[in-house]
Amino acid sequence: MQQLLSPLRRAVEDFGMVSEGDRIAVGLSGGKDSTALVAALAAFSRFSPNPFELCAVTIDAGAGADYKPLTAFCESLGVRHIIEKTDIYEIVFNIRKESNPCSLCAKMRRGALASVMGREGYSKLALGHHADDVAETLVMSMIYEGRLNTFKPVSYMSRTGVTVIRPFVYADEKDIAALVKEQGMPVVKNPCPADSDSRRSYIKQLLRTLDRENGFIASGNIKRAIFHPERNSLWSVPSRNDGEEKKRE
Protein backbone atom coordinates (compact mmCIF):
# COMPACT_ATOMS: atom_id res chain seq x y z
CA MET A 1 0.00 0.00 0.00
CA GLN A 2 2.89 2.36 0.72
CA GLN A 3 3.85 2.35 -2.97
CA LEU A 4 0.49 3.97 -3.70
CA LEU A 5 0.07 6.11 -0.60
CA SER A 6 3.31 7.98 -1.26
CA PRO A 7 2.40 9.23 -4.79
CA LEU A 8 -1.21 9.78 -3.66
CA ARG A 9 -0.15 12.01 -0.79
CA ARG A 10 2.24 13.93 -3.07
CA ALA A 11 -0.53 14.54 -5.63
CA VAL A 12 -2.95 15.65 -2.91
CA GLU A 13 -0.38 18.11 -1.57
CA ASP A 14 0.87 19.39 -4.96
CA PHE A 15 -2.58 20.16 -6.30
CA GLY A 16 -4.54 20.90 -3.10
CA MET A 17 -6.99 18.08 -3.77
CA VAL A 18 -8.39 17.69 -0.25
CA SER A 19 -9.64 20.35 2.15
CA GLU A 20 -10.88 19.89 5.70
CA GLY A 21 -14.49 18.75 5.80
CA ASP A 22 -14.63 17.60 2.17
CA ARG A 23 -17.19 14.96 1.24
CA ILE A 24 -15.51 12.88 -1.45
CA ALA A 25 -17.16 10.25 -3.63
CA VAL A 26 -14.98 7.75 -5.49
CA GLY A 27 -16.30 6.67 -8.87
CA LEU A 28 -16.06 2.91 -8.30
CA SER A 29 -16.40 1.13 -11.64
CA GLY A 30 -15.13 -2.23 -10.43
CA GLY A 31 -11.87 -2.02 -12.35
CA LYS A 32 -8.56 -2.39 -10.52
CA ASP A 33 -7.78 1.35 -10.54
CA SER A 34 -10.95 2.59 -8.85
CA THR A 35 -10.99 -0.34 -6.43
CA ALA A 36 -7.42 0.43 -5.35
CA LEU A 37 -8.29 4.13 -5.07
CA VAL A 38 -11.08 3.42 -2.58
CA ALA A 39 -8.64 1.42 -0.44
CA ALA A 40 -5.88 4.02 -0.72
CA LEU A 41 -8.15 6.96 0.14
CA ALA A 42 -9.63 5.02 3.06
CA ALA A 43 -6.09 4.46 4.37
CA PHE A 44 -5.09 8.08 3.67
CA SER A 45 -8.14 9.39 5.57
CA ARG A 46 -6.69 7.95 8.77
CA PHE A 47 -3.67 10.28 8.74
CA SER A 48 -4.68 13.12 6.41
CA PRO A 49 -4.05 16.56 7.95
CA ASN A 50 -7.41 17.58 6.48
CA PRO A 51 -10.16 15.22 7.71
CA PHE A 52 -12.66 14.25 5.02
CA GLU A 53 -15.64 11.95 4.49
CA LEU A 54 -15.47 9.19 1.90
CA CYS A 55 -17.99 7.10 -0.02
CA ALA A 56 -17.94 5.03 -3.21
CA VAL A 57 -20.47 5.34 -6.04
CA THR A 58 -20.99 2.68 -8.71
CA ILE A 59 -23.05 3.42 -11.80
CA ASP A 60 -24.86 0.26 -12.88
CA ALA A 61 -25.31 0.73 -16.64
CA GLY A 62 -27.70 -2.22 -16.83
CA ALA A 63 -25.31 -4.57 -18.63
CA GLY A 64 -25.62 -7.37 -16.07
CA ALA A 65 -22.55 -6.86 -13.86
CA ASP A 66 -22.58 -8.20 -10.28
CA TYR A 67 -21.41 -5.51 -7.87
CA LYS A 68 -21.95 -7.42 -4.61
CA PRO A 69 -18.19 -8.09 -4.17
CA LEU A 70 -17.58 -4.33 -4.31
CA THR A 71 -20.16 -3.68 -1.62
CA ALA A 72 -18.57 -6.28 0.65
CA PHE A 73 -15.14 -4.77 -0.02
CA CYS A 74 -16.31 -1.25 0.84
CA GLU A 75 -17.95 -2.52 4.02
CA SER A 76 -14.63 -4.08 5.08
CA LEU A 77 -13.03 -0.64 4.72
CA GLY A 78 -15.83 1.17 6.52
CA VAL A 79 -16.77 3.02 3.33
CA ARG A 80 -20.37 3.58 2.27
CA HIS A 81 -21.16 2.11 -1.16
CA ILE A 82 -23.94 3.54 -3.34
CA ILE A 83 -25.08 1.65 -6.44
CA GLU A 84 -27.05 3.78 -8.91
CA LYS A 85 -29.08 1.75 -11.41
CA THR A 86 -29.45 3.29 -14.88
CA ASP A 87 -30.54 2.35 -18.40
CA ILE A 88 -27.34 3.59 -20.05
CA TYR A 89 -26.62 0.26 -21.77
CA GLU A 90 -30.14 0.14 -23.25
CA ILE A 91 -29.92 3.71 -24.55
CA VAL A 92 -26.40 3.49 -26.00
CA PHE A 93 -26.56 0.05 -27.64
CA ASN A 94 -30.22 -0.75 -28.28
CA ILE A 95 -31.92 2.61 -28.76
CA ARG A 96 -29.18 4.85 -30.15
CA LYS A 97 -27.14 1.96 -31.64
CA GLU A 98 -23.99 4.07 -31.35
CA SER A 99 -21.13 3.11 -33.70
CA ASN A 100 -18.69 4.77 -31.25
CA PRO A 101 -20.42 4.10 -27.91
CA CYS A 102 -17.60 4.99 -25.50
CA SER A 103 -18.00 8.76 -25.70
CA LEU A 104 -21.75 8.78 -25.06
CA CYS A 105 -21.49 6.12 -22.37
CA ALA A 106 -18.79 8.09 -20.51
CA LYS A 107 -20.86 11.28 -20.73
CA MET A 108 -23.96 9.55 -19.37
CA ARG A 109 -22.00 7.87 -16.57
CA ARG A 110 -20.50 11.21 -15.56
CA GLY A 111 -23.98 12.74 -15.55
CA ALA A 112 -25.31 9.91 -13.39
CA LEU A 113 -22.40 10.34 -10.96
CA ALA A 114 -23.06 14.08 -10.70
CA SER A 115 -26.74 13.40 -10.05
CA VAL A 116 -25.95 10.99 -7.19
CA MET A 117 -23.45 13.41 -5.69
CA GLY A 118 -25.91 16.28 -5.77
CA ARG A 119 -28.58 14.15 -4.13
CA GLU A 120 -26.24 12.82 -1.44
CA GLY A 121 -24.35 16.05 -0.77
CA TYR A 122 -20.87 15.17 -2.06
CA SER A 123 -18.93 17.95 -3.81
CA LYS A 124 -15.74 16.16 -4.92
CA LEU A 125 -15.46 13.19 -7.27
CA ALA A 126 -12.28 11.09 -7.10
CA LEU A 127 -11.41 9.11 -10.22
CA GLY A 128 -8.81 6.36 -10.53
CA HIS A 129 -6.83 7.73 -13.49
CA HIS A 130 -3.14 7.01 -13.01
CA ALA A 131 0.14 8.19 -14.57
CA ASP A 132 -0.12 5.75 -17.49
CA ASP A 133 -3.59 7.10 -18.28
CA VAL A 134 -2.12 10.61 -18.33
CA ALA A 135 0.52 9.57 -20.90
CA GLU A 136 -1.96 7.62 -23.02
CA THR A 137 -4.39 10.56 -23.11
CA LEU A 138 -1.62 12.89 -24.25
CA VAL A 139 -0.64 10.54 -27.11
CA MET A 140 -4.31 10.10 -28.09
CA SER A 141 -4.75 13.86 -28.21
CA MET A 142 -1.67 14.30 -30.39
CA ILE A 143 -2.61 11.53 -32.82
CA TYR A 144 -6.38 11.98 -33.11
CA GLU A 145 -6.82 15.70 -32.35
CA GLY A 146 -3.51 17.27 -33.36
CA ARG A 147 -2.98 19.05 -30.05
CA LEU A 148 -0.99 18.72 -26.83
CA ASN A 149 -3.56 17.99 -24.18
CA THR A 150 -4.32 15.64 -21.31
CA PHE A 151 -6.66 15.73 -18.33
CA LYS A 152 -5.80 17.81 -15.27
CA PRO A 153 -5.28 16.52 -11.73
CA VAL A 154 -8.09 18.81 -10.51
CA SER A 155 -11.00 20.07 -12.63
CA TYR A 156 -14.05 22.08 -11.62
CA MET A 157 -17.23 21.23 -13.52
CA SER A 158 -19.19 24.48 -13.41
CA ARG A 159 -22.37 22.94 -14.82
CA THR A 160 -22.73 20.47 -11.96
CA GLY A 161 -20.67 22.18 -9.26
CA VAL A 162 -18.54 19.05 -8.88
CA THR A 163 -14.76 19.17 -8.48
CA VAL A 164 -13.03 16.17 -10.07
CA ILE A 165 -9.79 15.04 -8.41
CA ARG A 166 -7.38 12.35 -9.58
CA PRO A 167 -5.21 11.31 -6.61
CA PHE A 168 -3.41 8.57 -8.60
CA VAL A 169 -1.90 10.84 -11.30
CA TYR A 170 1.61 10.13 -9.96
CA ALA A 171 0.99 6.40 -9.45
CA ASP A 172 2.12 3.78 -11.99
CA GLU A 173 -0.38 1.24 -13.28
CA LYS A 174 1.96 -1.66 -12.48
CA ASP A 175 2.00 -0.72 -8.79
CA ILE A 176 -1.80 -0.53 -8.71
CA ALA A 177 -2.10 -3.94 -10.40
CA ALA A 178 0.43 -5.45 -7.99
CA LEU A 179 -1.44 -4.19 -4.92
CA VAL A 180 -4.82 -5.41 -6.16
CA LYS A 181 -3.38 -8.87 -6.86
CA GLU A 182 -1.42 -9.03 -3.61
CA GLN A 183 -4.36 -8.09 -1.41
CA GLY A 184 -6.99 -9.97 -3.40
CA MET A 185 -9.13 -6.90 -4.01
CA PRO A 186 -12.31 -7.60 -6.00
CA VAL A 187 -12.35 -6.69 -9.68
CA VAL A 188 -15.65 -6.75 -11.54
CA LYS A 189 -15.24 -7.49 -15.24
CA ASN A 190 -16.77 -4.87 -17.49
CA PRO A 191 -19.50 -6.62 -19.53
CA CYS A 192 -19.56 -3.84 -22.14
CA PRO A 193 -19.01 -5.33 -25.65
CA ALA A 194 -16.88 -2.29 -26.61
CA ASP A 195 -14.62 -2.52 -23.57
CA SER A 196 -11.58 -3.92 -25.40
CA ASP A 197 -12.19 -2.25 -28.75
CA SER A 198 -11.31 1.40 -28.24
CA ARG A 199 -8.74 3.99 -29.19
CA ARG A 200 -7.35 3.94 -25.66
CA SER A 201 -6.76 0.19 -25.84
CA TYR A 202 -4.90 0.71 -29.11
CA ILE A 203 -2.70 3.48 -27.67
CA LYS A 204 -1.97 1.39 -24.56
CA GLN A 205 -0.72 -1.45 -26.74
CA LEU A 206 1.23 0.98 -28.93
CA LEU A 207 3.14 2.36 -25.91
CA ARG A 208 3.86 -1.16 -24.66
CA THR A 209 5.25 -2.04 -28.08
CA LEU A 210 7.46 1.07 -28.08
CA ASP A 211 8.78 0.16 -24.63
CA ARG A 212 9.52 -3.42 -25.69
CA GLU A 213 11.04 -2.73 -29.10
CA ASN A 214 13.22 0.24 -28.15
CA GLY A 215 14.72 -1.17 -24.99
CA PHE A 216 13.74 1.81 -22.85
CA ILE A 217 10.60 3.06 -21.18
CA ALA A 218 9.11 5.36 -23.81
CA SER A 219 5.95 5.74 -21.74
CA GLY A 220 8.11 6.71 -18.77
CA ASN A 221 9.71 9.51 -20.79
CA ILE A 222 6.26 10.76 -21.78
CA LYS A 223 5.24 10.86 -18.11
CA ARG A 224 8.41 12.74 -17.17
CA ALA A 225 7.77 15.27 -19.94
CA ILE A 226 4.36 15.96 -18.42
CA PHE A 227 5.24 15.95 -14.74
CA HIS A 228 8.67 17.61 -14.70
CA PRO A 229 8.29 21.39 -14.09
CA GLU A 230 11.34 22.20 -16.25
CA ARG A 231 10.33 20.13 -19.29
CA ASN A 232 7.49 22.17 -20.76
CA SER A 233 5.07 20.76 -18.20
CA LEU A 234 1.42 20.76 -19.22
CA TRP A 235 0.52 21.16 -15.55
CA SER A 236 1.49 23.93 -13.19
CA VAL A 237 3.17 21.80 -10.54
CA PRO A 238 4.39 23.84 -7.56
CA SER A 239 8.17 23.62 -7.21
CA ARG A 240 9.29 22.17 -3.90
CA ASN A 241 12.31 24.51 -4.04
CA ASP A 242 9.94 27.47 -4.30
CA GLY A 243 8.29 26.33 -1.11
CA GLU A 244 11.63 26.18 0.69
CA GLU A 245 12.53 29.68 -0.52
CA LYS A 246 9.24 31.06 0.79
CA LYS A 247 9.95 29.51 4.18
CA ARG A 248 13.37 31.20 4.28
CA GLU A 249 11.77 34.56 3.46
Which percent band covers the strand fraction?
Answer: 5-15%
Question: What letter string, H or E per element, gives the SSE order?
Answer: HEHEHEHHEHEEHHHH
- Strand order within the widest sheet? 3-2-1-4-6-5
Which blocks of ≥5 consecutive residues have pLDDT under 50? Answer: 243-249
Number of strands: 6
Q: Helix/strand/pairing class, anyone?
A: alpha/beta
Strand count, sense and barrel status of the largest sheet are: 6 strands, mixed
Basic shape: globular
Would you give an account of this structure?
With 249 residues, the chain is α/β, with parallel strands linked by helices. It has helices spanning 2-15, 32-44, 68-77, 88-95, 101-120, 131-145, 173-183, 199-214, 218-227, 240-248, and strands spanning 23-27, 53-60, 80-85, 124-126, 154-157, 162-165. The protein has a six-stranded mixed beta sheet, sandwiched between helices. α1 (2-15) crosses α2 (32-44), α4 (88-95) runs antiparallel to α5 (101-120) and α6 (131-145) crosses α9 (218-227). The protein is globular and about 45 Å long. It starts with a helix and ends with a helix. Mean pLDDT is 88; it is low at 243-249.
